Amino acid sequence: MSTQPLRPRNGPAPDVIGPAPHSQVTQTAPIMEQEELWQRMRALPYAFMAPTLVSVSHARALFLPEGVGSGPERAFQRGREFAHLHPHHDGSLHLTLPDPVTAEVEAAGWGLRHPEQDTVLVYGPRDAAELETVWHLVRLCHAYAMGGQAR
């Protein structure tokens, strides 16, 4: 993974509600960007889709099987769920990331910590360039859950 710092996200942060549900309510990601992101997420090694254990219905969640990945317990939201993408009307996602990466996400304006859980809300990608940044964060999340270097 790249060690370059995140580029700042353009414009003001979207409006967010929460903590339950914790979601993005403005600047919704276009559905095509959401679907491209989901296709990439589904292809992550060892990841499988199952109903979320922590998010709203219709959120799409990714898990690692038992015995796969050696990330710390806090690399998972509940059970073996490490990420979920919110429904189309929202388009944001919750990821588990190490604290230094979460701090970088917040400083660069790409998301914010969940007020009650140990996850970060990453804003949905508004265009192809933002998709690449969000995809980078998803890969860091996956690496963290797998027990690899999350940078």
TrEMBL record:
<dbReference type="InterPro" id="IPR040841">
    <property type="entry name" value="Luciferase_dom"/>
</dbReference>
<protein>
    <submittedName>
        <fullName>Phospholipase/carboxylesterase</fullName>
    </submittedName>
</protein>
<dbReference type="InterPro" id="IPR048273">
    <property type="entry name" value="Luciferase"/>
</dbReference>
<feature type="region of interest" description="Disordered">
    <location>
        <begin position="1"/>
        <end position="26"/>
    </location>
</feature>
<dbReference type="Pfam" id="PF17648">
    <property type="entry name" value="Luciferase"/>
</dbReference>
<feature type="domain" description="Luciferase">
    <location>
        <begin position="79"/>
        <end position="140"/>
    </location>
</feature>
